[in-house]
Every structure is written in structure tokens, then in C-alpha cells.
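# nightly structure sweep
# worker-07 picked up a monomer target from the shared queue
# config: single-sequence mode, recycle default, output format = C-alpha cells
# input follows
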Amino acid sequence: MLWFGKKDGASKASKSDSNGSVKKGKAPKKGKHQKKAPLSYTALEPFVDSLYGDNGFRYDDGSESRGVVLILPFSELGGLTTSKADKRDQSKGVLVTAINKGDFEVYYDENQDELEQLIILANSDSIDTLADFSILKNAEFRWAYFGEDGEVEETDYVSTMSELIEHRTDLEGYFNSIFDEDEDNEVVESTQNNISHEPVVPEVTSELNDLSELNGLSIPETVEEPVFAQPEIRHEFSEPTPEVGIVGDDDGFYEEPDLEQM
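# output follows
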């Protein structure tokens, strides 16, 4: 019955075309997500079982234990869409085929399609498979926490493909070392910020010494004021000497001459 319905629709379309009308595409249904990347959606439960089972690892921050995953942004691939250009890109096509075949464990739903990223289970099998794709040679992967309910929380940590290959046999230890090193740096920085620096008042003597060293001079630690010798004060008395032209009498008194009589 369904096939007949499709055929009837097709025949109607052909009749309208013959009448000269323009053929229009179907509008997307409301609430239906239009897939951006050519990847198949995966189920949440099997991925969570692997992550919280023996295939993944978790990190305990003291309050809860959460699964750790890798996120591959499609921007690291130069984009991944359903366009003809991406379909013709052989390196992208090989990767898409491997993802859809399940060559390594991933989680991909409508939300990840909207965010244009792929969540990858962080283990040695995944890294070994990813290392075979030349398109991922220079890619950077983000570390993130993945809850059992599918909630994703990205961290600030990023690793290159080469770094993941180097630590592929112990990704858990590698992740913990990065996290612990970051925490140690935060503690040191916090300690330095809490140290109170008391204001230091420079001494005048030290500043003078610095200036003297620049000028090639030496300044004594203590400067004494010079003591000048005080002159000896002597009180001498001398008798007055009579001036010329003054006549003296017998009593020793001197009188000025009378100029009129002379």
C-alpha cells in the first residue's frame, strides 16, 4: 500500500510538471532535526556500559566518579557535512565509514550533531584506530566528563593526536597527571597571592651609599661636624695719644687753643 501511495504522488508531480508549474521540495516537519553530518546515531546505554565498565576509565574528584571521554570537534576535520564536497573527500569518507561500522566506540546523537562534534571512548583501541587516519594527524581532542545520563561537561584540557598515541597504553594515568599538575599550579598561585607584602621604607643611608657607588665616592657611616677653634679674646687698654695742635696745661688737661687770639 505504501509503494502505491508513493507512485500516486509521483504521477501527480509529473502531471503538474507537464502543466508548466515549478516543482518545490518538501518543507521539513516541525520538531524534526535536520542532520548535519553523515553519521549514524548511536544508543546511550551501550556506550555508558562500556565507559563505566572495563573499556573506559573514570575520574574521582572527591565528590563523585565520572567517566572520561574524548571529544573530536568536526572543525578539526575541516568540517563534516552532507555536502557533495565532503562526500567526495576520500579522507573524510574513510573516517565516516569506520565510525558508522563501529570500528571504535563513539556516542553520537542529535545534540552532538547540532554541536558538530563526536564523543569517543578513551581507550587504547580507539587511539590505535584513530591513528590510522591521516586526516586526524594534526587534530586536537578535548577531554570531557560523561555522565551516566548522557550529560557532557568539557574540561580545559586538550591533547594532540601524537600525545594520545604516546600515552595510549595508560590514558588514565596520563589524564590524571595533567589534572594533578594543574591543581598543583593552582595551589602555588593561590599561596603566592596570599602572601602579604609589607611596605619597605628605604633608609637614607642606603640610598646615599647607592648614589656614592654610582659616582665612585664613599660616604662615611657617620658624619661629624668640624669644630673650629675659637680665637682668644684679649682686653688691652692704651692711653689716648694727644693730637697735633692741642696744648696741654699743668694739670694734665688739654684745652683747645683760642684761634681768635692767635
